[in-house]
Amino acid sequence: MLKFEFLLKGKLAENGLTLAKLSEMLGVIPQNLSQKLKRGTTSYDEAQHIADLLGYDIEWIKRK
Predict the structure, then answer these.
(1) Residues 8, 11, 19, 61: is their CA dihedral positive or negative?
(2) Is 42 exposed, middle or buried (0-12, 13-18, 19+ CB in 10 A)?
(3) How far apart are CA 59 and CA 20, in angstroms?
(4) Residue 5 contacts by C-beta under 8 Å, 6 or more apart in sequence?
(5) What does the pLDDT look like over 29-64, one tens digit per residue?
(6) Taking a C-beta distance cutoff of 8 angstroms, is the pair 9, 24 a contact?
(7) Taking the CB of residue 34, how many other CB atoms lie within 10 A of it?
(8) Model pLDDT, residue 34
(9) pLDDT tens for residues 6-34?
(10) How would residue 1 be classed by pLDDT, with cut points 50, 70 and 90?
(11) Is the pLDDT of residue 2 over 90?
């Protein structure tokens, strides 16, 4: 399973952003965001907020 941390870092790179810039956008300390990602404790609401800030939608697709 793909960790949210790696997915997010890939999306940040695609958009020319850094974790520090995302932290600034979220109004949090970069170290706190980094640790939250490493621990895997990001809530779904937080993930939705991050996706929204980056211009993405989270989509649930039924598997076949």
Answers:
(1) negative
(2) middle
(3) 26
(4) 37, 38, 40
(5) 999 999 999 999 999 999 999 999 999 999 999 999
(6) no
(7) 15
(8) 94
(9) 999 999 999 999 999 999 999 999 999 99
(10) low
(11) no
- List Cβ neighbours of 54 (8 Å cut-off, separation of 6 or more): 11, 12, 15, 17, 22
Where do the domains of the chain lie?
Answer: 4-54
Q: How many CA atoms lie within 13 A of 56 on its CB side?
A: 14
pTM over 0.85: yes
Our CA dihedral for 30, 34, 35, 39, rounded to 10 degrees, sits at 160
Count of helix runs (H) and strand runs (E) in the chain: 4, 0
How far is 28 from 32, CA to CA, in rounded Å?
Answer: 7
